[in-house]
Specification:
The chain has 378 residues and is α+β, with helices and mostly antiparallel strands. The protein starts with 21 loop residues before the first helix and ends in a 13-residue tail after the last helix. The radius of gyration is 22 Å and the shape is globular. Strand 4 and strand 5 form a beta hairpin. The chain has 9 helices and 17 strands. The protein has an 8-stranded mixed β-sheet with strand order 1-2-12-3-13-16-14-15, with helices on both faces.
């Protein structure tokens, strides 16, 4: 009996998006490519708010730059769907007399990926190009153990000879630095770029707003589509915005690890991977009844799900919403991501669309009459 031929993954038919349109894909590319470092998210927020504005009744922004669109702003029951807008980056921390620049982290930037990377230094005079230099391999063979990249030995080179020349370019301590790597699509299957963590989340909640608009869905609650700042330094934007909105429910979307790639221990990080659908998280901050509604929605709509567990905090904006204002029933829906906090973060397009669909369908089943109480006492 002849054996059935098995296609390799690379030979499979490319995924054809059914939700993401050419216009939304153009927005995503522009949004990912635009730098939005923690504390300096304004330009990215302008792009996001311009895209979302046609799908909502009103837009608002707080003092630190978190932006949200509102559908049914007068409704007394308020539901938030949220992502964070900021990306990890660096700060100029010290300029040597010979014109080299040392850095500090702004968020969880990875010093090990820095060597040989091209960057942009943001100044009031404009963008200045620079590179993270690194000694040639020939010079590192001294018979001993090679020194790994760390914050003491990585530095930026702008091609200047002196500190004065660096400063003449408008560079000073405190200037923020971002990588220049840009968006691409890999094998017609993956979105790739820096800062998919978590501007892909901002994209997904914007698409939920778009679907509600084009499908003419009427909600019997106020929906707040929130893109928060400063998550990478402690959930700060969400901490502020939850007091402004005073929501009754929050559904947060962020990214989690694809643990199928090398050097990740599944026994520690769990078993989640790109292409197997969005990930729901169990943990103290996650409201069990809201999570049950999301899982039941996935089951009814035949959306494939993965599961993860958080022993204490989720480490996402979910925590900021859940523990505010006397307790806000909150849940986390994550997108599996390869190579988090690098410049080649990868998300599978099918997972992006499944996450959009899951949030959208959950909202259609949510009601102000939903009973979030775990128990009743007399």
């Amino acid at each position: 009996m002849p054996q059935k031929k098995i296609r390799s993954r690379a030979a499979q038919k490319p995924y054809k998006p059914t939700i993401i349109t050419p216009a939304s894909r153009t927005f995503l590319e522009k949004y990912i490519n635009n730098p939005s470092p923690t504390g300096f998210e304004a330009e990215g927020q302008k792009l996001w708010s311009s895209y979302v504005r046609p799908f909502v009744d009103q837009m608002a922004v707080d003092a630190y730059g978190s932006v949200y669109g509102v559908i049914n702003p007068k409704a007394p029951f308020r539901v938030v769907i949220e992502a964070h807008a900021d990306e990890i980056s660096w700060f100029v921390s010290y300029i040597t007399e010979s014109g080299l620049i040392h850095v500090k982290r702004n968020g969880g930037s990875d010093h090990q990926i820095a060597p040989s990377k091209r960057v942009n230094i943001h100044t009031k005079k404009g963008m200045v190009k620079a590179v993270f230099g690194w000694p040639a391999i020939h010079t590192r063979r001294d018979g001993g153990k090679e020194e790994a990249p760390n914050l003491k030995n990585i530095c930026l080179d702008v091609g200047a000879k002196t500190k004065a020349e660096v400063e003449s370019l408008g560079i000073h301590v405190g200037c923020v630095i971002t990588y220049e790597d840009e968006f691409m699509v890999l094998n017609d299957r993956y979105f790739v770029g820096r800062a998919l963590d978590n501007r892909i989340g901002g994209f997904m909640i914007a698409e939920v707003a778009r679907l509600l608009k084009i499908n003419k869905k009427k909600l019997d609650f106020g929906l707040y589509i929130a893109n928060c700042v400063q998550e990478e330094v402690g959930l700060r934007g969400a901490e502020m915005l939850v007091h402004t909105i005073q929501p009754h429910v929050a559904i947060v979307t962020d990214v989690c690890h694809d643990t199928s790639t090398p050097m990740i221990q599944k026994v520690v990080e769990g078993d989640t991977a790109c292409g197997r659908g969005p990930v729901v998280t169990y943990g103290p901050a996650v409201h069990n009844k809201l999570l049950d509604l999301i899982i039941d929605t996935a089951d009814k709509r035949k959306i494939r799900l993965q599961r993860d567990a958080a022993s204490r905090s989720t480490g996402t904006d979910t925590d900021a919403f859940a523990y505010a204002n006397g307790g806000v029933p909150s849940a986390l829906i994550s997108l599996p991501l390869r190579y988090m906090h690098t410049t080649v973060e990868m998300a599978e397009i099918s997972d992006v669309e499944a996450t959009i669909t899951l949030i959208y369908e959950t909202l259609l089943r949510l009601s102000p009459k939903f009973d979030f109480k775990y128990l009743r006492v007399s």
